[in-house]
From TrEMBL:
Top-level taxon of origin: Bacteria
Gene3D superfamilies in the record: E3 ubiquitin-protein ligase SopA
Protein name: Pentapeptide repeat-containing protein
Membrane-crossing residue ranges in chain numbering: 29-53
Pfam families referenced in this protein's UniProt entry, alphabetically: Pentapeptide_4
Residue ranges that the Swiss-Prot or TrEMBL entry lists as coiled coil: none
Alphabetic keyword roster: Membrane, Transmembrane, Transmembrane helix
Length: 191
């Protein structure tokens, strides 16, 4: 009789031990499933965040040949296009504030409605460039060539220009900038 009683206790203990082991396994799997789930949601969150990040990352296109490139509607704040060939490129309605176009070739480029505040345009070629309704406020444009440029509604407030280029621009200046409300002739101090 004693041996049967000890067998029952052992079986009961084994069942209890087995139940505890199953509970521990379930907890273990739940913990790892939670960790994996958090990890996957983290990856999804980072992917969505980077996927919807603004385009305002300063880029360098120095000395690049980008003839006919389309940059329209982008945010290129503080990017650099120093000595780049951008002939016939499209920068319409682009945020170009703080951009460097030092010695860049922008011949026949489209900069309509672009924001060029505080941009460096020194020694750039803006020959036959469309600057309709562009904002050039505070841009540095010494030694810039504007021959044949379309400047209807462009805002040249506080732009550093050579006197001979200023006179050329005054001959064709007309219109009012729709964003700033300033008349092109007034921003160029035309007589």
């Amino acid at each position: 009789m004693n041996s049967r009683l000890s067998d029952r206790i052992t079986v009961s203990q084994l069942n209890s031990f087995h139940n505890e082991l199953q509970l521990k396994r379930k907890r273990y799997y739940l913990i790892w499933a939670s960790i994996l789930s958090l990890f996957l949601w983290g990856i999804v969150g980072v992917t969505l965040t980077l996927g919807f990040a603004p385009n305002a990352l300063a880029l360098e296109y120095n000395k690049e040949i980008l003839v006919g490139a389309d940059f329209s509607g982008r945010d290129l704040t503080d990017s650099s296009f120093t000595k780049a060939n951008l002939r016939q490129s499209n920068f319409s309605h682009t945020n170009l504030s703080g951009v460097s176009f030092f010695a860049a070739n922008l011949e026949s480029a489209n900069l309509e409605g672009s924001d060029l505040r505080n941009a460096t345009l020194d020694s750039a070629r803006l020959i036959k460039t469309n600057l309709t309704n562009a904002i050039l406020e505070g841009a540095f444009a010494a030694n810039t060539k504007f021959d044949g440029a379309i400047i209807d509604g462009a805002d040249f407030t506080d732009v550093l220009l050579r006197p001979d280029e200023q006179k050329k621009l005054c001959k064709v200046a007309k219109g009012t900038n729709p964003t700033t409300g300033r008349e092109t002739r007034d921003t160029l101090f035309c007589p």
